[in-house]
Design a protein that fits this description.
heterotrimer; A alpha/beta (204); B alpha+beta (395); C alpha/beta (226); B: 395 residues; alpha+beta; 3-stranded antiparallel sheet; 16 helices; 12% strand; globular; C: 5-stranded mixed sheet; 4 helices; 31% strand
């Protein structure tokens, strides 16, 4: 149920504000995304720098870093996910309450980055959990993290509460928990969660 | 040759045991130790470090560090890469101090290949190295205070200075954090006169920052109550456990590789090595502030004396670099302690063995000894005072 | 500081039958080292630490090195008797032939210790020890009771190379998880094959990605045939 934009602006001039439940709901969610206090590697330092005075993440309503996954809305995978750490990352993600979002920050979180060929390095966290925003860079500058926030806010703003394309947390059939990989004798088992990740087709 | 348990017990440098009279749990009463896993996701662990702690009431009865959550196979990758290709990887060891990592690696390769470094490049190395030390110490004190519950303010002060220094790094090297600046036989790019002027300006502002930081923190009653007498490290144990850097000097052992090895051009500068008396958390915190002041002094001298000339040895080979077979161990005084690189060459383009001697990893050896008998809340402080970076601990 | 020859002589005087050998380093760094015998290494280490003049009380760095079995092919000149027909008469003639012979030099694991002195401010003195082979005889004495700083570094070498340190107080895996079977820093380690998605592969990675795809295809064809 959309409001006629022109009518809305005209009414606004008269001091009357109209909105829809969906817009109000998304406006509220978009401006108070609480990230989890969760640093993995080099990118975590840039993440902390983003929250400090110079870049001031508080302008986007996301400065309240929560140590507990139960109180957080968003997980910033800030750095290399190793195979020893991956089960813990998935477990933490499972412990977060819906609606929850994931930003994969930096080359390592996206694909393994410069450490991709290491025997203990996971080639991208999207093999186990769904990722909303990817930020390239090694490490990404704080401005890039802010851009990722803005992108995530736009994504939240665009979510409709009903219908086929409603987000996962409003769809009772969508998975709520994701399989936690087990450390095996030579590698993680399984090497990827087939429900989340399939080998992408490269078009050249 | 076997050695017995009595061998170890007779040696004062052997592992510490829990102080007498701290045990309250008694299996006969039905009380027992509480096992707590701190980390790998814990806000105080500076990354993904884990401690398996057994608590006796509030007191720590056992503490086993668990590593490897950031084991990125640095050494294995180094064996597969050419010598030059490992340089950007060293940035990511101790990711707060990329330039000193570059320096240690460049120094080791220069020893391996017998290369010389021009004078101006040495000065530039000292300048960026000491700037790195300033921002590391500012940050580590900020994080320590953050761990103590002083949420925000000290850390923000530290980050404010760090941003000024990172701007200089970015202007010189092109990157804020991962500078990849040094090469075997010099530095990658020369500093412009404008950059040196900007650096002089930043350095001129640093004593004011140190004053402000000290006025804010040093005599703070809460800080003193929380840190004095906590996590004491005895000098003989510190030496035996290979502790280096501010942590060793806080225990009163005078060992600074800048003074001992006379590497680079540190002989030319007048600076003192601050030493602690008690070896507690407060001394380690204080040593960092005092070292920060000494670094400012070195920076002032280096920026005054820096000569002209090339920044790369003209004979240095960048492409197709193959050192003669042999091995070399090179080390520097990094902000966290002795950072060493041990390289074995078989004459090929890649090192046969590429080993990093990380200061934070070895400094954690005595974590259990320092924590035993203290409250669990002090564990967070003691770990903060060691000043670890997980990229270097796990590599 | 004493020269390496003097240190060697001092060790042999203090620990009779120590069997210390000087290993030359041909490179420009000229950091030569002492090779210890595993049997007497612990006594030698205690001597190096406690000797007033040497006072090597600071063990800085412990490194594991893997030297796999080396197949050496060398050309050898062999003289042998050959029966030949010369001018219609059968004769036995000595002939020198060049032959290529292959021999396998057995590999070993090596542990290198870098020692310094915090009181005398000298160093490094480098010690090396070798295991007998790379498979079953991989025991070496632990230096942890002499220098605590070896504790985690020796655990790391146990984890990544598989050297078993006798006398170590807590020898467990340190970087990889419990239950991991391999020793990944060994040069013959086979990494897990997760080369299914390599969008920007080149050189070694490209070869591995191609090998992975070929294996996947072969498995798929085998599956289809059944």
């Amino acid at each position: 149920m959309a409001v006629d934009q022109e009518l809305k602006i005209e009414l606004g001039k008269q001091g009357v504000f109209v909105t829809t439940l969906q817009e109000l709901y998304n406006w509220g969610r978009r401006n108070s995304v609480w990230p989890m206090n969760f640093g993995l590697a080099c990118c975590a330092i840039e993440m902390i720098a983003t929250t400090m005075a110079r870049y001031d993440l508080a302008r986007f309503g996301a400065e309240v870093f929560r140590p507990s996954p139960r109180q957080a809305d968003m997980m910033i995978i800030s750095g290399t996910v190793t195979k020893k750490m991956a089960p813990q990352v998935v477990r933490l993600y499972n412990q977060m309450a819906e609606p929850r979002y994931v930003i994969a920050m930096g080359a390592c979180a996206i694909s393994g980055g410069p450490f991709k060929q290491g025997y203990n390095v996971l080639k991208g966290i999207d093999r186990y959990i769904p990722v909303d925003v990817h930020i390239p860079g090694c490490p990404p500058r704080p401005e890039a993290l802010l851009e990722a926030f803005i992108t995530l806010q736009k994504k939240i703003d665009g979510q409709s509460l009903t219908g086929e394309d409603r987000p996962r947390f409003l769809n009772s059939e969508a998975p709520g928990e994701f399989a936690v990989p087990e450390p095996g004798e030579h590698d993680l088992e399984p090497a990827a969660n087939k429900n989340v990740w399939t080998v992408p087709v490269v078009i050249r | 040759m076997m050695h017995s348990a009595t061998d170890m017990a007779a040696d004062p440098r052997a592992r510490a045991t829990r102080p007498e009279g701290t045990l309250v749990s008694d299996p006969d009463d039905g009380t027992e130790l509480l096992e707590v896993s701190m980390g790998p996701h814990h806000p105080s662990t500076h990354g993904v470090f884990r401690m398996d702690v057994a608590l006796d009431g509030e007191k720590v009865a056992r503490l086993k560090p668990v590593f490897g959550y950031l084991h990125r196979n640095h050494e294995k990758l180094g064996e597969g890469n050419s010598y030059l290709a490992s340089m950007p990887y060293t940035d990511r060891l101790d990711y707060i101090c990329s330039l000193t990592n570059n320096w240690a690696y460049a120094l080791a390769v220069e020893k391996l290949a017998g290369q010389e470094v021009p004078e101006r490049a040495e000065y530039l190395r000292v300048i960026v190295g000491e700037l790195t030390r300033v921002q590391n110490h500012a940050l580590s004190v900020g994080f320590l205070l953050q761990d103590m519950g002083a949420s925000g303010t000290p850390l923000m002060y530290g980050f404010r200075e760090r941003e000024k220094i990172l701007d200089l790094f970015e202007a010189l090297t092109g990157s804020r954090m991962m500078c990849n600046y040094m090469r075997f036989g010099g530095c990658r790019v020369d500093a412009t006169p404008e950059w040196l002027d900007a650096t002089r300006k930043v350095v001129a502002g640093l004593p004011g920052f140190a004053d402000e930081f000290e006025a804010l923190l040093c005599t703070n009653e809460i800080l003193m109550a929380r840190t004095q007498g906590v996590g004491i490290l005895k000098p003989d144990l510190a030496v035996s456990a290979g502790i280096t850097g501010p942590m060793l000097r806080a225990s009163g052992v005078n060992y600074d590789i800048r003074k001992v090895d006379h590497y680079s051009i540190y002989d030319r500068f007048d600076f003192k090595v601050p030493l602690g008396d008690h070896g507690d958390v407060y001394d380690r915190f204080m040593i960092r502030l005092l070292e920060l002041r000494q670094s400012i002094g070195i920076l002032e001298q280096a920026l005054k004396d820096i000569p002209g000339g090339p920044v790369m040895d003209p004979k240095a080979k960048i492409r197709n670099f193959r050192p003669k077979p042999g091995e070399a161990y090179g080390r520097i005084e990094a902000p966290k302690g002795e950072l060493g690189f041990y390289l074995i060459s078989d004459g090929g383009p890649n090192p046969y063995r590429y080993r990093v001697r990380p200061p934070s990893f070895v400094n954690l050896t005595v974590l259990e000894d320092m924590c035993l008998g203290h409250n669990v809340a002090d564990v967070v402080l003691i770990l903060g005072s060691v000043d670890i970076v997980l990229g270097e601990v796990d590599r | 500081m004493k020269t390496l020859e003097e240190i060697k002589a001092a060790i042999e005087a203090a620990v009779p039958g120590a069997g210390v050998e000087i290993v030359q380093n041909p490179g420009p760094a000229a950091q030569h080292s002492l090779r210890l015998q595993p049997g007497s290494a612990f006594e030698v280490a205690k001597f190096l630490r406690d000797d007033a003049e040497l006072a090597l009380n600071f063990l800085s760095n412990v490194t594991g090195v893997d030297w796999p079995d080396k197949e050496i092919s060398e050309k050898v000149k062999v003289t042998r008797a050959v029966t030949k027909t010369v001018d219609g008469v059968e004769q036995t003639v000595e002939e020198t032939v060049e032959e290529t012979r292959k021999r396998v030099e057995p590999g070993y694991l090596e542990v290198v210790y870098h020692l310094f002195s915090m009181t005398q401010k000298h160093g490094p003195v480098i010690l090396r020890m070798r295991t007998e082979n790379r498979s079953d005889k991989v025991e070496l004495p632990s230096m942890t009771p002499v220098w605590r700083s070896a504790e985690f570094q020796e655990r790391e070498i146990f984890d990544l190379y598989g050297v078993v340190f006798r006398g170590h107080p807590d020898l467990r895996r340190i970087l990889m998880w419990e239950g991991f079977k391999d020793h990944p820093m060994r040069r013959d380690y086979v990494e897990p094959d997760d080369y299914d998605y390599e969008p920007t592969a080149h050189d070694a990675v490209l070869a591995k990605a191609k090998a992975h795809q070929a294996a996947q295809q072969a498995a798929a064809e085998k599956g289809a045939a059944q």
